[in-house]
Automatic annotation (TrEMBL):
Ranges of Low complexity composition bias in the record: 290-300
Annotated spans, Disordered: 288-307
Matches recorded under Pfam families: ABC_tran
Protein's organism: Blastococcus goldschmidtiae
UniProt keyword annotation of Nucleotide-binding present: yes
Domain ABC transporter: 2-228
UniProt keyword terms in alphabetical order: ATP-binding, Nucleotide-binding, Transport
Database matches in InterPro entries: AAA+_ATPase, ABC_transporter-like_ATP-bd, ABC_transporter-like_CS, P-loop_NTPase
Protein name: ATP-binding cassette domain-containing protein
Organism phylogeny: Bacteria, Bacillati, Actinomycetota, Actinomycetes, Geodermatophilales
The family this protein is said to belong to: Belongs to the ABC transporter superfamily.
GO molecular function: ATP binding
Amino acid sequence: MINVEHLTKRYGAQLAVSDVSFSCAPGTVTGFLGPNGAGKSTTLRAVCGLTLPTSGMATVGGRPYRELPNAGRRVGVLLDAGAQHSGRTGKETLALAALVMGVPGTRVDEMLELVGLAGKPAGKRVGKYSLGMRQRLGLATALLGDPEVLVLDEPANGLDPDGIFWMRGLLRGFADRGGTVLLSSHLLREVEAVADQLVVIAGGRIVAQGSSEQLLASTGTVVRARDREALTGALAAAGIGVVAGPADALIADGPAEAVGIAAATGGVPLLELRPAGGDRLEELFRSLTGPSAGGAPAAPQMQETRA
């Protein structure tokens, strides 16, 4: 179980995250989403004890990460696949981590096999690895201690389509066995395919959270007209917000009937009017975090220092 309670982090005068609260239950994958600079990395670092909150707290199993005995046996972490010693081989990297955590050496070969790095790749120096291979090694390291919780930041970066499909099955299987997964990714379709719960952050604040089924049940209406500006004005006059949609369409924050009536009242002929579907998570994401969403502006990106 991961609990984030009223987490706030300031860097001087800059507010990175403000009053962030959510929880991740055992047996679930939670997708943690937001635009660049929204506060995702700051929140994940706080969960993993790398950033001390200004106020509030983050706990794993009821305790702050820093207070967990042999934390690698409880929480598997992958925040930056590039943060690996380039001069060591893949197997040496895992063997050293196994010694630190007190994990049997046989676990190293098991994890290399699991992530597809057994054989020649295991003896290759990490500096010669592709980004996808580094991601696989990072996942192997996170899983090495047989943890109950995984905290992963963009784990699919550098993976090819087969690798992404493999990772999806890996995370789904981990959760189905009772594990807890907190996953941040910009690959929205992959998050939609695997996540049970969604937490969306923008401008350092949570703007939506709940089950995937609940949040994706209705994501607005796709509407298109020859005169896009006139359509936007007609919908605004009816109190219906919009964000940019596919091609030259708009995603309206309202049911199709209300959108159609607003367009007709404004004298705007429509070329397309249908419930939003297909890329449901992308549509939800844009409606919550886009410039016209009405939320706070995104927090500026900043370099974090270890507390």
